[in-house]
Amino acid sequence: MKRKLVQQGAATLMVSLPRKWIKAFNLKKGDEINIQEQNQNLVLSGQETSIKKELTLNLTHKTEAPIRFLVISLYRAGYEKITIQYSEEKQFQIINQTIKKYLIGFDVTDKKKDSCVIENLTEPSPEQFEIILQKILYNIKSMVELTKERLEAKTPGLDYKEVLQTIHQYDNFCRRSMTKQNKEKAVYYWNFLSIIIHNSRDLYNLNQFLDQNNKGLKVSKETTGLVEDSLELLNSIIKAYQKKDITELGEVDEKKNKLIRTGLEILRKSKGDESEILYHLISAIRNLYRSTSPLMGLLLESSC
Description:
Blueprint: E1 6-8, E2 12-14, H1 19-24, E3 34-38, E4 41-45, E5 54-58, H2 64-76, E6 81-85, H3 89-102, E7 106-111, E8 115-120, H4 129-151, H5 160-181, H6 186-212, H7 221-243, H8 250-269, H9 273-290, H10 292-303
Parallel strand pairs: 5-6
Antiparallel strand pairs: 1-2, 3-4, 6-8, 7-8
Helix pairs in contact: 2-3, 4-5, 4-6, 4-7, 5-6, 6-9, 6-10, 7-8, 7-9, 8-9
């Protein structure tokens, strides 16, 4: 069935609906219909409907990393119900741990000897995307702050492992939400999150190093000052995102160049364990700066 578009006003195009379809749903002037975007298609319905994505797969991987990547990828792809067939109980244990650590709203709803079903029970609504993204930025900031406290030989109020786990959960939800909504500007959001989250991964590695070398480890005030400066850089990035203001990114390039130069100078004269700490810090700072490229694209698109 084909219908011609009719011009209505300066920028609106309209199309008539089939009479048979209107009668089937007993629709009249002023009634509402539901319209869903599915890739390049528009699906019209007389009442609220949703298409549930389901999948059955045979799991051949037996180690943690590929199983984790697979489950997370299916979650991000927007599946609501996934039946997984496996050959070993160990595979199920990895699946179950991945759900608990990295996914929001999913759980195992059925388990047999050689298969299980995982599905969406409850999760934040897509409308909460912006709130969840702000929480990611808040937790990245928390990771920088607790790292600074540890380098100053203070006891942080948060556990860096739990903070990174929370960041991963929120990040996976945002990517799932982008997939399900076919979200506008998704490529910029996706790349921005991919890069800025590496800042926390670098600091996670730094904190793991601190765990392994926590006896008698001392760092210079210059190194802790570098963490403080990186926190200012992060605050500038967060402020630019929250205000959707490109001009706020103006100082980021200057701050980055100064921080990298300072970090390399400290690294050149550092010795022993402090050199590894500085390696992770400089890498974290670079990822903050790299995240401004997709952020710039996102802010430009938002201003158009």
